[in-house]
Amino acid sequence: MGKIGHKTEIRVIYADTDAMSVVYHSNYFKWFEVGRTELLRSIGFPYSRLEQEGVRLPVIECGCKYIKPAVYDDLLAITTVIKEVKAASFVIEYEICRKDTGERLVTGFTRHAVTNHDLKPLRFKAAAPELYNLLFNNDESRSPE
């Protein structure tokens, strides 16, 4: 039983860099979102579908470890993996590497609550049963309800 993951690529554009010609630190969080969005899309649950079903997934905690800087025109590989699934939340882990060398640049995570439109917490299993079962049944670090 493996974890659900996805890999996507993104190229660093000049606007993503700072005066030192390296990627500005907050852009990595934007790229985490790219990875998360593409992971959900790849398993049939784009954010638009979740929103139509009345489910929101706000970030309630996040972290990032900067190992080496990305620079203009780097082609990056973003690996996104569902790490933990709980009754009303889940954790996604990210790794961003240079695609051509595999050199690890950044690791990070986001923790998401499962809520309704008004940000009221929902039981994941009841709110999005198909997604919950897909993630829960593939999560090695599951928590009992």
Give the ordered list of helices and strands: EHHEEEEHH
- Fraction in helix: 10-25%
CATH H-level superfamily: Hotdog Thioesterase
The total of beta strands comes to 5
State the domain count: 1
CATH architecture: Roll
**Radius of gyration over all CA atoms, rounded:** 16 Å
How far apart are the termini?
19 Å
The outline comes out as elongated
Strand order of the largest sheet: 1-3-4-5-2
- What composes the largest sheet? 5 strands, antiparallel
Output the CATH class name: Alpha Beta
The chain-level mean pLDDT equals 91
Low-confidence stretches: 140-145
What is the number of helices? 4
CATH topology category name: Thiol Ester Dehydrase, Chain A
Write the layout of secondary structure elements.
Layout (H helix, E strand, L loop, with lengths): L4 E7 L15 H16 L4 H6 L6 E8 L8 E11 L3 E10 L5 E10 L10 H4 L1 H8 L9
Antiparallel strand pairs: 1-3, 2-5, 3-4, 4-5
Outline the structure in words.
The protein is an alpha+beta fold. The chain has a single domain, classed as Roll (Thiol Ester Dehydrase, Chain A), CATH 3.10.129.10. Helices cover 23% and strands 32% of the residues. Strands 1-3-4-5-2 form a five-stranded antiparallel β-sheet. Strand 3 and strand 4 form a beta hairpin. The two termini are 19 Å apart. The C terminus is likely disordered.
Q: Briefly, what is this?
A:
With 145 residues, the protein is α+β, with helices and mostly antiparallel strands. It has four helices and five strands.
